[in-house]
Amino acid sequence: MPNVGRNDSEHENHKDGKGNVKAPETAHQISSDSWFQVAFVLTTGINSAYVLGYSGTIMVPLGWVGGVVGLILATLISLYANALVAMLHEYGGRRHIRYRDLAGFIYGRWAYTLTWALQYVNLFMINTGYIILAGSALKATYLLFWDDHTMKLPYFIAIAGFVCAMFAFGIPSLSALGVWLGFSTLLSLAYIVIAFVLSLKDGLNAPPRDFSIPGNGAGKIFSIIGASANLVFAYNTGMLPEIQATIKQPVVTNMMKALYFQFTVGVLPLYLVTFTGYWAYGNSTSAYLLNNVNGPVWVKAVANITAFLQSVIALHIFASPMYEYADTKYGITGSALQIKNLTFRILLRGGYLTFNTFVSALLPFLGDFMSLTGAISTFPLTFILANHMYLTAKKDKQSSMQQLWHWLNIVFFSIMSLVATVSAVRLISVDSKTYHLFADL
Fold first, then answer.
1. Which of 22, 132, 165, 268 has the highest CB neighbour number within 10 Å of its CB?
2. d(Cα 122, Cα 373) in Å, to the nearest integer?
3. Domains in the chain, number
4. Do residues 297 and 145 make contact, with C-beta atoms less than 8 angstroms apart?
5. 363 three-class SS
């Protein structure tokens, strides 16, 4: 391996007396979960309630050919990019349990800070989307029984934020989710099966649908570019080292098992509901599929409530790096029910989620946030940085063709990140003028 700015003695200092790879200090549990549990964490992320939006935010702007090919290609390149990061987890003789730790070890302090900033923005916007989703699910449930429009979307977003905060107070770490991952899987199956069955029924009974890509001119082009960012958003967490930190040894082998599960079995529900939803409603599919489906009120209510509850659990996964940072910095260890620890979680996590909720209510444009997240953070973190880190760390062991391949990836995804960011900002600007702030969508 290349030196990468550190000498061999420094590498050896990161091993214990038995020669095992050591991990940095953290207040949260590490090396405690099986690969199967970690696989369910990853699968929970990609089959969260966000899947109810992909028919409208990916398939509608891209059409059948672009959408199907795009989702399959995004699956393959996402598996590849995540595998690169997973294989660097013990690079240099130590475990890198945080994305910023890995970048800082390879490049230096400036990369640690930049990666942490990118990751924070990435996870903040993902969580903003989850709160919008949860609020939308609550509103949809409300309208099934009371169609008086007295309660507006911002009110439901506020309720969703409060429930997310209450859950965060009681679950101290990512590993502590435990049985909640099982509940999350059951909740995901509920709304995915209901959305699939009702969409299938509607599609079989519907007249011919319009599958043409809507819009014209610049607006159509920007929508297509924005949808390309949604493609990579669908599969990537931006926090793979943090998730890999929880897995038992051997960490690389077990993480690869989890990734193979995620990108084979784990993507099937996503494909199923995304393609069926678009087939059933064509280019009139909304950004929240359950707004399109027809069926018994109680069935639709179950789908919306399970989507709400699953969003609460999934948000906790993507907020965990911030929680781990704060808990470690301020020495929050020991029993989760200690008055000191509980008070700290209430103040810090409550403050973070309050601000998250405010932004969600202020700009409740789910599809736009998905595009912006993919553009300014998923592309750089998952594709640009992953390829360049692997190229730097393994340069001496790669042929010129392999190095060229990584550089092509870096250049291509850099261009995609730039144009997708411009597109996403434009979409948010247009929607803000169309719907106004705190819109009731």
1. 132
2. 6
3. 1
4. yes
5. coil
Query: Could you tell me the pLDDT band of residue 177, with boundaries at 50, 70 and 90?
Result: confident
CB count within 10 Å of CB 204 equals: 9
CATH of the domain at 193: 1.20.1740.10
Q: What's the rounded Cα separation, in Å, for the pair 207 and 281?
A: 10
> Could you tell me the two tokens for 50?
């966000």
Query: How many residues does the structure list for the chain?
Result: 441
Residue 78 lies inside a defined structural domain of this protein? yes
Q: Which domain holds residue 308?
A: 35-434
Question: For residue 139, which of 121, 166, 158, 123 has the smallest C-alpha distance?
Answer: 158
Asked if 85 contacts 389 with a C-beta cutoff of 8 angstroms, the reply is yes
Structural domain includes residue 147: yes
Q: Taking the mean position of all CA atoms in its chain, how far away is CA 1?
A: 32
Contact 67, 278 (CB under 8 A): yes
Longest dimension (CA), the chain: 71
End-to-end CA distance of the chain: 53
In a domain, 27, yes or no: no
- The closest of 57, 49, 46, 71 to 365, measured between CA atoms, is 57
From the CB of residue 3, how many other CB atoms can be counted at a distance below 10 Å?
Answer: 11
CA distances from 335 to 27, 33, 339 (A): 11, 19, 9
Q: Where are the alpha helices (DSSP H) in 171-247?
A: 179-205, 217-233, 240-244
Phi/psi of residue 286, nearest 5 degrees: -85, 175
pLDDT tens profile 101-128: 999 999 998 989 988 888 888 888 889 8
pLDDT above 50 (res 7): no
Which amino acid is located at 324 in the chain? E
d(C-alpha 367, C-alpha 227), whole Å: 9
Q: Are 75 and 267 in contact (CB under 8 A)?
A: yes
Please name the residues in contact with 433: beta carbons below 8 A apart, sequence gap of 6 or more: none
Q: Which whole-number Å values give the CA distances from 214 to 117, 210, 243, 282, in the listed order?
A: 36, 9, 39, 10
Instruction: Flag whether 7 is in a domain.
Output: no
Token digits of residue 194? 């209901």
104 neighbors 26 (Cβ within 8 angstroms): no
Could you give the 3-state DSSP secondary structure of residue 267? coil
- Per-residue pLDDT reduced to its tens digit, 203-223: 999 899 999 988 787 778 888
Instruction: Give the other-Cβ count within 10 Å of 210's Cβ.
Output: 9
Distance CA 185, CA 43 (A): 8
The span from the CA of 377 to the CA of 238, in Å, is 8
> Cis before residue 250, ω within 30 degrees of 0?
yes
